[in-house]
Amino acid sequence: MIESANSDPSNALPATPKQLAYARKLAEQQNVILPWEIQQDRRALSQWIDTQRTAPRVRDTRPSSKQVAFAERIARIKRSAVPDECFRDRTLMSRWIDSNKPR
User: Fold this and answer.
1) Of 10, 36, 73, 77, which residue is 20 to 30 A from 56 by alpha carbon distance?
2) Res. 9 pLDDT band, cuts 50 70 90
3) Confidence of residue 8 (pLDDT cuts 50, 70, 90)
4) Domain extent listing, the chain
């Protein structure tokens, strides 16, 4: 009896470097873990990539480094502090900057 390639892990093709790079980029964008076992099999990695591409994107709501730097510069000029909650939300940081930037 001949076994299919899917049931025998020793016949699994290794993932390509290009495929691995793309999967790692997706994992970083989606803020998910890329399992080690998935990285070892080309077909499994392809399925994982397809799943991640169709999943809704996770948006990072933290302020950008440029926003933080600008807000801290404004705070130094005004001799005040940026509220802690602004460092957790991009929209709050933007509103704080708009209401405090020098005119």
Assistant:
1) 36
2) low
3) low
4) 15-54, 65-100
